[in-house]
Design goal:
510 residues; alpha/beta; Aminopeptidase; ten-stranded mixed β-sheet; eight-stranded mixed β-sheet; 10 helices
Length: 510
């Protein structure tokens, strides 16, 4: 097509003016790239049934991690893992009771994993007479050298909804019943405890049998043989009553030879970065932290066995992608580091591994901004842990976060869960903890627990995406301020851990 010279000149002039005006406009605020629609899209993908709950140490976790890495690449984040990839792999040690273990009740052989399961990974050899008793008959019984059998009895009235606890085991009535039996006979010298579960309590059987196949997991991040190898002890056995061939009588014998299998499974941290724009500061990093794993497929509740973990912790996993898009569009003076930690649900495995095997030196990380469960509860409130003594390890970082909240999100901040005596010990249960223990200024962004925690009902359609977007912007604004500040946040010399929660679920001294 031919264009007249005068028209062409006018077109060029118009284009020049438009380009000049555009050049004179202030650049787009990067926070505007944190969009609710993008967060919702990513959330429904990562927490959808197709990801099968993203269980740590499984192919499902690998699938989710590959998805995260590809989205990070699309967001403009550079790989920062091993060998120029987005990945830092690490080994999980897994122990479980062997399916070849031998258990016989009254001469009837039981199949481990199908007729009988253990309440914990334990080594045991038992040959003892059985004593059958009711749960209310256990006080002051002499059980030395004997095995006690108690039939599971459901609660007379349904228990009131319990406050969220540390994991799915707290929702199993048969396990709670067994714990009561264990306490009652703790000093009676029993060689084993058998809990019979009738066939009409099939739901409870499934709930104790489903976790059995997983066993326990451990990590040896520094080669010091930290692994939780199984020890010998008094076995707790859950037995399907019908598998005994009609019940158990006092005087029959329990024989058992329980041993374990061990495996090594891979898990993975996904690591990416946005290099800083200031040549003098780009070797310092602001770490944005999340975990991408959850609980996988567990026991079925109301027809659903996929524990999707939308809030825990797909919310922060996709928040990091949104923050990454904003940082990639306009880098800070310092570099931004993004780590999606693997196998957090196994006991902070990925973050514990990283602090022992850092890809960038821990001393170069000026702040760890970790998020976990950022999309539920009252839309006007949120929690910032590590903001109140003794957990506060950087007053300057806390003030930066408070200022960012005031500027972009205006949440009412709930500090009560930061109390070292809070019964949930929430500060000790996410991936900032290993960093704080190793001298990195650290904060934990959360909207706290809810009734769907560690159940198959933690689904993406229950997330308040608008609130999650505000949480994401708050986290970004805090990190952006740290990235652009002249000085890095200082550590608080008064910081200490009043108590800790180790990977076995036990509170211990720091």
């Amino acid at each position: 097509m031919r264009i007249h010279k005068t028209a062409a000149a006018a077109l060029l002039a118009t284009s020049y003016v438009a380009l000049t005006v555009a050049a004179q406009r202030p650049p787009q605020d990067p926070i505007s790239r944190i969009r609710e629609a993008d967060i919702k899209r990513d959330l429904f993908a990562l927490a959808g049934d197709e990801m099968r709950g993203r269980e740590g140490g499984t192919l499902d976790e690998m699938t989710a991690s590959a998805w995260v890495a590809e989205r990070a690449r699309e967001a403009g984040l550079q790989p920062a893992g091993d060998n120029g990839t987005y990945f830092q792999f690490f080994p999980l040690e897994r122990y479980r009771v062997s399916a070849s273990s031998i258990v016989s009740v009254g001469g009837k052989a039981l199949r481990m994993g199908r007729d009988v399961v253990t309440g914990a990974v334990v080594l045991a050899d038992v040959d003892a007479p059985l004593v059958v008793a009711a749960a209310d008959e256990l006080a002051n019984m002499d059980l030395k050298g004997k095995a006690i059998v108690v039939k599971y009895t459901p609660p007379a009235t349904p228990a009131a909804p319990a406050a969220p606890q540390a994991g799915p085991g707290s929702q199993v009535a048969a396990r709670t019943f067994a714990t009561g039996v264990q306490r009652s006979v703790a000093n009676a010298g029993a060689t084993a405890i058998v809990i019979l579960i009738a066939d009409d309590q099939k739901d409870q059987w499934e709930r104790v049998a489903a976790p059995f196949v997983r066993g326990t997991y451990a990590l040896d991040p520094d080669g010091t043989a930290e692994q939780r190898t199984p020890t010998r002890g008094v076995p707790l056995l859950f037995v399907r009553e019908s598998a005994t061939g009609g019940g158990v009588a006092t005087g029959a014998r329990l024989t058992a030879s329980i041993f374990t299998d061990s495996f090594t499974y891979p898990s993975v941290n996904v690591i990416a970065k946005v290099p800083g724009r200031d040549a003098k500061l780009r070797d310092e990093y602001v770490l944005f932290s999340a975990h991408q794993d959850h609980d996988g497929e567990r026991f079925t509740v109301n027809g659903d066995k996929i524990w999707n973990g939308a809030d825990d912790n797909a919310t922060t996993a996709v928040a990091l992608l949104a923050i990454g898009r904003a940082m990639a569009a306009s880098p800070g003076r310092r570099s931004a580091l993004f780590i999606w930690h693997g196998s957090e649900e196994r006991g902070l495995m990925g973050s514990r591994w990283y602090v022992k095997h850092p890809i960038v030196p821990l001393a170069s990380i000026v702040a760890c901004l970790n998020g976990d469960m950022m999309g539920r509860n009252d839309p006007t409130t949120a929690a910032l842990l590590g903001a109140v003594g003794p957990h506060r390890n950087s007053p300057e970082l806390v003030e930066t976060a408070y200022a960012a909240n005031k500027a972009v999100s205006q949440f009412t901040i709930d500090s009560s869960w930061d109390d070292p005596n809070h019964r949930e010990g929430w500060y000790y249960r996410s991936d900032h903890l290993p960093y704080a223990r190793n001298g990195v200024p650290s904060l934990f962004f959360s909207t706290l627990l809810h009734a769907d925690y560690h159940t198959p009902f933690d689904n993406p359609d229950r997330i308040d995406v608008a609130k999650l977007t505000k949480m994401t912007r708050w986290m970004y604004a805090t990190g952006r301020a740290v990235a652009d500040a002249d000085k890095k946040p200082a550590l608080d010399p008064a910081f200490k851990l009043e108590r800790c929660r180790d990977f076995t679920g036990t509170y211990c001294a720091p």
